[in-house]
Amino acid sequence: MRQHFDSEPINYEEAFRDLMAKRRRQRVLATLRRLDPRPTASSQVLLAGAALVVVGWILPFNHVALTLGLILLVVGFVTGLMRPRSRRVYWRQREIDLPSAETWATRLYRLLYRTS
Predict the structure, then answer these.
(1) R_g of the chain computed on alpha carbons
(2) Are 83 and 42 spatial neighbours (Cβ–Cβ below 8 Å)?
(3) Is the pTM higher than 0.85?
(4) CA-CA distance, 101 to 90, in Å (whole number)?
(5) Which partner for 46 in 1, 13, 68, 76 could form a disulfide, CB atoms 3.0-4.6 Å apart?
């Protein structure tokens, strides 16, 4: 037996507008996720720091680049030591990658660096 509800009829124009707005928001969020400016590894931070150190060393009046480069070198080295390590084990003649333990260092590493 059908129940009859006293509801308004569906406004298809409004529903279509809502659907298009939702799709636009999803597209914008997907684009922002793709444009993540974070580096993918600490080696990229080390290279940027080395480049800034060289620029600061060649141009004697540019002490800011030298200081920033040294800071980036230290940050890249320390975060390289904090990189999460996975373990490979064999189970039933198959190789399995086990994730590392979730510590403050791995959370910081994942916050600073983009993962694929």
Answers:
(1) 26
(2) yes
(3) no
(4) 19
(5) 76
